[in-house]
Amino acid sequence: MSSKGNNVQLAAEIRNEFTRAARRSIRQNGGLPGVVYGSDSESIPVSVNLKETARLFQTGRSEVFDLNIPGSDPVPVLIKDVQKRGGKVIHVDFLHISMNKSVRVTIPLEYQGEAIGTKSGGILQIQETELEVEGMPGDLPVTIEADVSGLEIGDKLTVADLKLPSGITLGATSEEVLASVNIPRAVEAAQANDEKAEEASEIKS
To answer: Which residue numbers delimit the Large ribosomal subunit protein bL25 L25 domain (predicted)?
Structure first.
């Protein structure tokens, strides 16, 4: 992997053999089988260096980089999918994109701050770690920031609370809950028992 100006460049080789043994040989030699598809073109089977590609598994899902394939102009791509087996990456899908057409990708959420409610015994619960967005390739953020610092016990952070870059739209509804601060179950159960005991005492009196 190299950098040319602001563009990341990843070298790739064309795959001509598609047997299980051929794929295993690629992995044993530090490579990773993959395929390039999309943008109204035929899919291209490729292999890339695993270590170099691994650096792009996070940012490469929303940050465009060039795949350098012998005999071809640099191909602008995003990492669309990564397949794993037994915790090891075994295959990668590259999405060939046009810089003039919007794309839909999944981007990780980056939670920031310490929820106020956790200082009073509440527990921050994360419901979502990533969101699907759509926008022009050049406008896609690497992560989406989600500030939880203002959450009290019982509060929820929803999609409507997010601040998105101009030109980016979300696939999720504005009401979808991303995170919340809740009372620990043991404390909640104890409070419920106390309320029942008080009700019973009032009835007797």
So the answer is: 10-94
